[in-house]
Amino acid sequence: MEYLPVTVDKSHLITIGERLYSESIELIRELVNNAYDADATEVLIKMTDELIEVQDDGTGMDREGLRQYFNIGSPEKVLKSTSPRFQRDRIGQFGIGKFASLSACECFEVYTQKDDFAAKVTFDKKEWGKEGEEWNLPLQILPPDKERGNGTTVTLLRLAREFEPEEVIRKIVEGTPLKVSNFAVRLNGMRITPRSLSGHRIPFLEGTEFGPVHGEIVILPSSTASPEELGVDVKVKQVTIKRELFGLEHWGKIASRIRGEIHADFLPVTTDRSGFILDSPQYQAFKKVMGKVIQEVDGVLKRLAGRKEKRKASKALKEALQRIHRALALNPDLSPFGAIPLAGESQGMGGAAAVSNKIERDEKAEVDLASGEKEEEDKPIPAPKKIRKKSPKVKRLTPNAVVQRMKFGEMGVSVCLDDFGENEPECFTEGTVIYINQQHPLYQRESKRPETHLLNVTRLITQEISLMKDTKNPRLAFARQSKLLRDAFIDPQSTTPPHL
User: Fold this and answer.
1) Which CATH number fits the domain that encloses residue 32?
2) pLDDT by residue (tens digit) across 179-204?
3) 88 sits in which H/E element
4) In sequence order, which residues have a C-beta less than 8 Å from that of residue 345 and are 6 or more positions away?
5) DSSP 15
6) Is the separation of the CB atoms in 28 and 175 below 8 Å?
7) Same domain, 133 and 214
8) Does residue 341 lie in a domain region?
9) Between β-strands 42-47 and 184-187, what pairing exists: parallel, antiparallel or unpaired?
10) How does pLDDT run across 225-270, given as a tens digit for each residue?
11) CATH number for the domain harbouring residue 236
12) Is-contact 57 151, C-beta < 8 A?
């Protein structure tokens, strides 16, 4: 029987294993990352009530490799920062992850095989307590298993706490490089896949004097936003070190829509790998870059909010015009445009249709000449003169404008929803264009209520149409509007005439 000396005293082991790792669940993540550093392509985790087993198909360890494995503070991974087979950036630095098991179990075993060398090391907390300040780990040399092949298996025995599979999965998703193409992790036979977020993606790549900062911010849809796990994952060598907010805590409820991941491999991390060294020049450069990225995210959020409001307004306007068209068809005497053709006639009823934001300024109208007596047969009859009709003043529209048109045979009206200022009128008409002010306080209030938004838009349009019929009698116009508004919301399947 051989023995491996542990090159750290017991008080340090207690600090490292039981105090430094605030969550003993971290040890499983560390074991998976050790397998990644060893060029494993697959890691199999087995969890029962009695044990946890982490098996990999990496390069394995020989006798010297085992000495390095149990040598805390070994510079091995710092000196050899990339793996030999896949040239992976190695994740581990301090060699303390394995001792986190002291807070989770009383014993762990390490079986490893590399080519013709195979061995098992037993780390038993009870035996350790019997030997005073000195401690040697028993090393058992075994015949190599050709079917097993190279790799390492760590088994945790006599568990001191229970581990929930969901808890383990969450920690592995956060802290292991699952997106690498030649690396897979399975828990009790089920493959663990990286988190997938759906939403508006904002990729970025920024440079610093210490190295690049790159990643992707995702703005989640409102329906999937959650106040849990707020912030953006900051990763060093594919591992989430901490979830940062970058000032999002001051954004209010909308901060729940911001997720994503950022990669900055140059950031110095604390010894327990739970945070960054904040006063380092590397972190200060990183923080400056992220301030710029978050500012861009804020701008995108505002544009997306505008698009959402525009889609909502467009939908409400379209339905309002369809309802008003139906109400005018039922009440042709209330139409300022004349009778509307009924369905089935040559031109049909027409309908609300979206048009471009550009409204034609000039409309030409031919003036019919009255017939008169002929003065001389050889005198040519002058051609009818075309008189340019003054077009109504068209407002300059903003990018938030929504414009739709409702036709009545050859005639119709255009409706424009736009921002005209909170102190401007709620709605007004110029020629055949009805303007609705989206910044008016009343419109703002009603637009936030889905059940009243459509009714409010319909009310404003019917008000202006009724005034077009007879601008000299507002009271009569109000009565017309009341009837149109009622018929606009009558059930179209009803057999009872709406005006009775």
Assistant:
1) 3.30.565.10
2) 898 999 999 999 999 888 888 999 99
3) none
4) none
5) I
6) no
7) no
8) yes
9) parallel
10) 888 888 999 999 888 889 999 998 888 888 899 999 999 999 999 8
11) 3.30.230.80
12) yes
